[in-house]
Amino acid sequence: MVEKKAHDHAVDNWTSGILCYEFPYGSPPFEADEQDDTLRRIVTVDLTFPSAHYVSAEAKDLICKYVLLLGIGPVLSNSCLPVAQKARNFSYTLHY
């Protein structure tokens, strides 16, 4: 949507990851002061997990997996890099 390309159900999966992030942290994961910065963070998957809140490693892993399902850009975030590396040889299959 940000890149003005066609999208499918993967957007719903990505949105689930965003909501999973917002529940414990209380704010959107890619929010920035300027809209252009927010859009850049979305496209580059610039995801961070503030240390001020305790969130389990399993929850962070789940958030990363959902956000990476859309695959809209290269993963630059160190937070999701281990998940992305593991996922290279793993195929996600979602059943509806």
UniProtKB/TrEMBL annotation:
SUPFAM superfamilies cross-referenced by the UniProt entry: Protein kinase-like (PK-like)
Please name the InterPro entries in this protein's record.
Answer: Aur-like, Kinase-like_dom_sf
Q: Which GO terms describe its molecular function?
A: ATP binding; protein serine/threonine kinase activity
The answer to whether UniProt assigns keyword ATP-binding to this entry is: yes
Keywords from the UniProt entry: ATP-binding, Kinase, Nucleotide-binding, Serine/threonine-protein kinase, Transferase
Q: What is this protein called?
A: Uncharacterized protein
Organism per entry: Arundo donax (Giant reed)
Species lineage, top-down?
Eukaryota, Viridiplantae, Streptophyta, Embryophyta, Tracheophyta
